[in-house]
Amino acid sequence: MNEMELKYGCNPNQKPSRVYMENGGELPIKVICGRPGYINLLDALNGWQLVKELKKATGLPAATSFKHVSPAGAAVGVELSDTLKKIYFVDDVELTPLAAAYARARGADRMSSFGDFISLSDECDKATALLIKKEVSDGIIAPGYSDEALEILKAKKKGNYCILKIDPNYSPAPIEHKQVYGVTFEQGRNELDINEQLLENIVTKNKDMPAEAKRDLMISLITLKYTQSNSVCYVKDGQAIGIGAGQQSRIHCTRLAGNKADIWWLRQSPQVLGLQFVDGIRRADRDNTIDVYISDEHDDVLAEGIWQKFFKVKPDVFTKEQQKEWLAKNTDVALGSDAFFPFGDNIERARKSGVKYIAQPGGSVRDDNVIETCDKYGMAMSFTGIRLFHH
Predict the structure, then answer these.
(1) Residues 250, 389: Cα–Cα separation, whole Å
(2) How far is CA 315 from each of CA 1, 276, 302, 307, 319, rounded to the nearest angstrom?
(3) How far apart are CA 5 and CA 41, in angstroms?
(4) Residue range(s) in the chain whose domain bears CATH number 3.40.140.20
(5) Residue 179: how many other CB atoms lie within 10 Å
(6) Which residues of 145-164 are buried (b: 16+ CB within 10 A; e: fewer)?
(7) Which residues contact 89 (CB under 8 A, 6 or more apart)?
(8) Using CA atoms in the order 306, 310, 314, 319, what is the torsion angle rounded to 10 degrees?
(9) Angle, helix 126-133 to helix 97-107, in steps of 10 degrees
């Protein structure tokens, strides 16, 4: 098959819509179940490239959770701590490495991942399918599916869950095209191989960059390669914990992603882990309630007559002082940026979210200020010399 008709394009009024191979070759994807939409396929094809490169760079199975053509989370199959298992709602199941990767990718920013499109680097196994079964998701792309996994996934959304199979050996043409307002754009594909060699130019006084830090920086850079720019990505323990996408200024990317990383860490605090939710509360409602509880709007869920809807016992306020004390315990975070940091304010903000290792292209007229700020906090920073804009 070299053509697939779609229901509509980005919006219902954008018809007709289809995907096809200009050279008459076969589409590299096969629809096993459901009917993918225009945005679904953008998420699927971008997400597949991301996990394929993560697997190549780290040797570990990888997963990503995509929403609106940017990843909400991305991770490799590193074993989860008991705390992460609890906040990801997987403390009662057996996890394969691939399932661990998806639990991490989905769990980093659960609110953004609601209704995601999933990409897996390896054949979807039963353990991973059972995790996906519990979540609100639009679809999945993978190079294959076990019989048990396929049976589980086909039952989602009353049999309408979108399941795509990608040819793992497919290699696209080196030149790609895109149309905007009737004008055709042409460029060479971004075939940059992201590996440890990109991290060798450490420009700070601190030259110590352990293997795990290099792995996390590679995860960050590969994630940025498929995130709408401007973008930055915070990574810890093999997973993205905060992605700031599509902002016009670098500092807003850093703040947005840093705030997401902070929420991820605050969810692991004793105050949040000790919350006693009412029986039967849905996962999305629990996620939303936690988000409000740790925000400045906590009165919205702790007011009399309201907290009983969510909690068995009224929790104490998680004060700003307590949050600051807990956030200070988050350390050894890696941060990647798709373009240079123009000012040291980005480093100042990153430090508040535990960043110790940084990879960015370099090349700003204020590189000296950025390096000086890193040195002030003992951070190690690499200049990759490579920009990773994606549009």
Answers:
(1) 12
(2) 57, 8, 8, 9, 12
(3) 12
(4) 3-171, 176-266+327-383
(5) 8
(6) beeebbebbbebeeeebbbb
(7) 107, 134, 283
(8) -90
(9) 20
Q: Which CATH number does 176-266+327-383 carry?
A: 3.40.140.20
Structurally, what CATH architecture does the domain formed by 270-317 represent? Orthogonal Bundle (1.10)
Which single residue is written with the structure tokens 């907290």?
307
- Distance, in Å, from the CA atom of 272 to the CA atom of 186, rounded to the nearest integer, reads 50
Give the pLDDT of the chain (391 residues) as one tens digit per residue.
789 999 999 999 999 999 999 887 899 999 999 999 999 999 999 999 999 999 999 999 999 999 999 999 999 999 999 999 999 999 999 999 999 999 999 999 999 999 999 999 999 999 999 999 999 999 999 999 999 999 999 999 999 999 999 999 999 999 999 999 999 999 999 999 999 999 999 999 999 999 999 999 999 999 999 999 999 999 999 999 999 999 999 999 999 999 999 999 999 999 999 999 999 999 889 999 999 999 999 999 999 889 999 999 999 999 999 999 999 999 999 999 999 999 999 999 999 999 999 999 999 999 999 999 999 999 999 999 999 999 9
- The tokens 């519990």 sit on which residue? 134
**Looking at domain 3-171, does it have CATH number 3.40.50.150?**
no
Angle between helices 250-266 and 320-327 (to 10 degrees): 100
Q: Which residues pair with 366 in a beta bridge?
A: none
Q: How far apart are CA 179 and CA 41, in angstroms?
A: 17
In the chain, list all ranges with CATH 1.10.287: 270-317
The residues pairing with 64 across neighbouring beta strands, listed in sequence order, are: 74, 119
| Residues 201 and 217: beta-carbon distance below 8 Å | no
**From the CB of residue 221, how many other CB atoms can be counted at a distance below 10 Å?**
28
Q: Do residues 162 and 35 lie in contact, with contact meaning Cβ atoms separated by under 8 Å? A: yes
Catalytic residues: 67-68, 230, 391
Question: What six digits make up the tokens of 386?
Answer: 């490579």
Rounded Cα gap, residues 298 and 78, in angstroms: 33
